Amino acid sequence: MKFIILAFLLSLLVSCSNNSWTTPDTPVNSDSDSDSDSDANADAGTDADSDTDADADSDTDSDADSDADSDADTGSDADSDADSNTDGDVTITIEETDGLCLMDGTIDNNNSGFQGDGFVNAANAVGSYIEWSVNTLAPTDANLQWIYSNGGAAARDASAELNGVPIARLAFVPTGNWTTWTTVALSVSLATGENRIRLVSGTSEGLANIDSLAVKGTGVSIGECDMSHRDTDTDSDTDTNEPACTQIDTVGDWSSVTTGYNGTHDPSRIVESEGRFYVFSTGATGMSSADGLNWTKEPSPIANGFPPWVRNTLQSDNQGLWAPDLIYFNNRYMLYFSVCGLPAAGAPCAIGLLTTPTLNPNSPNYEWQDGGLVVTNPRNNDSVQYAAIDAAPIVDTNGDLWMVWGSGYGKDQSQPQLYITRLDNETGLPLATDPMYNPPTSPGYPLKTGRREGPYMHYRNGYYYLFWNEGSCCSGTASTYTMYVSRSTEITGPFTGDRVFYATTGERHGPGHMGIYNDCCFERFTYHYYPTGSSILGVNHLYWSDDAWPILGDPVSTPMTACGGS
Q: Which end of the chain has fewer beta carbons closer than 10 Å to its terminal beta carbon, N or C?
C-alpha cells in the first residue's frame, strides 16, 4: 500500500510527505520518557571519554523505545538512500557504512530514535571528528543536514570543513536528552568528483551524537572514501615501489604537539632507518622516534668536527652547521648541510655532503663519511649575490639527483637567490657536464629572485612544488616566518602561482623550513615554530586540493609505525 501511495504522489509531482528536508519546529524523535536522562554509568565509574559511558552528558537513557520505529520518528525514508525531487535535485542519506570514511569515536546504538544501525558517538575532546564522502557529477550547490542529539546542558560547537578547508561554525544546541533528535543544516558548493565533509569538535565535550548526514543537490551520490589524497605510491621522491598501505592516518587537532627531545630549528624532512624515524637540525642536532610523535636525542653527524675543507673554503671561523636535509639514494643516506663564515654580512658559505649506510648509531655499519664540498659562494660582490645555504635534495621523474638551495637575505634582491643544481648520481656532487653549472656566476638553474630562503622541492602527480620561507626566522614569538609555495611541470621551472602555504596560526609562531614525509601510508610535513621563545618540531598532515595545490593540515596525533620506507 505504501508504494501505491508513493507512486500516486509522484504522479502529481508532489514532494513525498516524509521528505527529509522538512525541518521540524520542535526536535524530532521526541521520547515520551524525558525524565530518564540519568547517567547510567556514573555510579559505576566507567570511562569518561565516551558519551555513552560515563560522561556527565551521558547518552544513556532507560527508555525502551524500539529502534525499529526510528524511521517514523525522524521523518525520513529509510527505504531509499537517494530520493529524487521534482527540481532535479537528489537527496542522499549517509549513515554508518558507505560514505562514512573516518571518525574519532564509536558507532553506538544504546539510545532509541536513531535511523539505521546506530549513531556516531565522537570522543569527548577538542578536535574529535567525523568525515563523510560525497560525489558529484558536476559543480553544484547543495544543502547538508545532520540529524543529532545533545543531552548535555550546553551547545556542542563544531567546525564544518569541506575538502580540508573550514567553511562554517555550527552550534549543535541541547535537545533535552539523548533520545531526542533534531537537525542542523548548512548550504555549500560542491566540486566535481569526491568531496570530503568533516565536522571537528570545538569543545572538550566533543561532538553531539550524529545519526546521519543527508545531502541534497543535483547529481550527488554517496562517495567511496577514496584515500588517494593520502596515497604515497605516485608521490615518493625516491621509491615508486612502496609497500601496500596497512595503516590509516586520522585527523589530529591544533593542540597536538610533539614531545620529548623536540627542540629544533630548520629541521630536515623525516627519514626512516632500521625501524625508527630521524630528523636533523641546525646546530648539528639529531633526534629519532619510534612513532613520529615522541623524540629522543641522537648523536651529531659531525661529532668529530667539520671536514678540513670547511675552514679552507671559508678562510675563517664558522657559524656552525645550518639547515641539514637528507635523502636515501643509491643505498646510502646523503645529508646535505650548510656552513657560513665570519663576519656574517655577505659571508662566504658552503654546502657540504655527509654519507652513511645507516642512521642507527648502534649499528656496526654506522659511520658518517665526508662526501666533499658541493656548492660555495665567495664573499658577496657585485657579480655574486647569493648564499650557498639551506640545501634540500630531490630525485626527479627520471631518477636523477638534484639539490635546491639558496637565500636572498641581505643580498641584491633583483638577482636570483634560489637555485637548483643537477648532481652526479654516484658522487652526490654537482654534475660538471651540466650546461648551467659554471660557478660562481652560474651555480645552477635560477628559480626565484627576492628575499627568500629555506627552499624545499617535492614532486607529486605531474608537478614539482617549490616551497620557501620569507620573513623573520629567529625572533621567538615575534617571528614572522611564513611558508610559500609555487609549482612547475619542469624541475628547473618556471615556478608560478606563488601563494602562502602556512603563516603563524594560533600559538604556532613563525613556521618554517618545510620537509615532506610520504611513506608508510602517511603524508606529513615537518617544520619548526615558536610556541614560546624557543622553537620546537611541528609535524602536520599534508592534504591536496582538487586543483592540485597543497593544503595545510592540522598537527598530527596518530603514531606511525616504520614500514621499511626511507
A: N
Let me know the angle formed at the C-alpha of 101 by 100 and 106, rounded to the nearest 5 degrees. 70
User: Vertex 420, ends 419 and 423: CA angle to 5°?
Assistant: 140
Half-sphere exposure of 153 (CA within 13 A, CB side): 3
3-state percent breakdown (helix, strand, coil) of the chain, nearest 5: 5, 40, 55
For residue 293, the SS3 value is coil
CB of 387 closer than 8 Å to CB of 340: yes
Euclidean distance between CA atoms 177 and 156, whole angstroms: 14
CA distance 270 to 247: 17
- Its sign, for the CA torsion 375, 381, 384, 388, is positive
**CA 541 – CA 552 distance, rounded (Å):** 7
In the DSSP assignment, the letter for residue 230 is: G
Strand 259-260 to strand 294-298: parallel, antiparallel, or no bridges (unpaired)?
parallel
Distance, CA of 254 to CA of 534 (rounded, Å)? 18
- Helical residues (DSSP H) of 24-91, grouped into ranges: 70-74
Q: What is the pTM of this model?
A: 0.61
| Bridge partners for 338 per DSSP | 322, 351
> What CA–CA distance (Å, rounded) separates 546 from 226?
13
Q: Which residues fall within 8 angstroms of residue 430, CB to CB, at 6 or more apart?
A: 374, 375, 421, 422, 423, 424, 437, 439, 443, 444
Contact 495, 489 (CB under 8 A): no
Q: Are 351 and 338 in contact (CB under 8 A)?
A: yes
Annotate 328-338 with b (16+ C-beta within 10 A) or e (fewer). Answer: bbeeebbbbbb
Instruction: Give the list of residues 6+ apart from residue 505 with CB closer than 8 angstroms, or none.
Output: 254, 511, 552
Q: What is the pLDDT along the chain (566 residues), one digit of tens a residue?
A: 443 433 444 343 333 333 333 333 333 333 333 333 333 333 333 333 333 333 334 343 333 333 333 333 333 333 334 444 445 788 888 887 788 988 878 888 999 999 988 999 988 877 788 989 999 999 999 999 999 999 999 999 888 989 877 788 898 999 999 999 999 999 999 999 889 999 988 887 889 999 999 999 999 999 887 543 333 333 334 333 333 444 555 556 788 899 999 999 999 999 999 999 999 999 999 999 999 999 999 999 999 999 999 999 998 899 999 999 999 999 999 999 999 999 888 899 999 999 999 999 999 999 999 999 999 999 988 889 999 999 999 999 999 999 999 987 778 889 999 999 999 999 999 999 999 999 999 999 999 999 999 999 999 999 999 999 999 999 999 999 999 999 999 999 999 999 999 999 999 999 999 999 988 778 899 999 999 999 999 999 999 988 899 999 999 988 988 877 65
Cell numbers linked to 498: 606563488
Q: How far apart are CA 180 and CA 182, in angstroms?
A: 7
Rounded CA separation 289/149 (Å):
41
Adjacent-strand bridge partners of 543: 551
- What cell was used for 95? 549513515
**Is-contact 379 347, C-beta < 8 A?**
yes
